[in-house]
Design goal:
This protein is mainly α. It contains three helices and no strands. It has one domain. The radius of gyration is 16 Å and the shape is elongated.
Length: about 60
């Protein structure tokens, strides 16, 4: 069920009009760069969370 959470960073980086701007700047970097960098840093913990949820579920029936 947690697999749906993997769509969050996918959609967040594909919707370019959300982050296609220069303000607000963070430490001199435009919003475009630090938004994508924040998405990149958020992905490993999200993958870990989804993986832990997948391991706790019993395997489904084999086909």
């Amino acid at each position: 069920m947690r697999r749906w959470l993997l769509l969050i960073p996918f959609v967040a980086t594909l919707t370019v009009p959300i982050y296609n701007r220069t303000t607000p700047a963070l430490w001199g970097f435009p919003f475009f760069y630090w938004y994508l960098f924040a998405c990149l840093l958020a992905l490993p913990p999200l993958l870990w969370f989804v993986d832990r949820g997948m391991r706790s579920q019993p395997p489904g029936p084999r086909q």
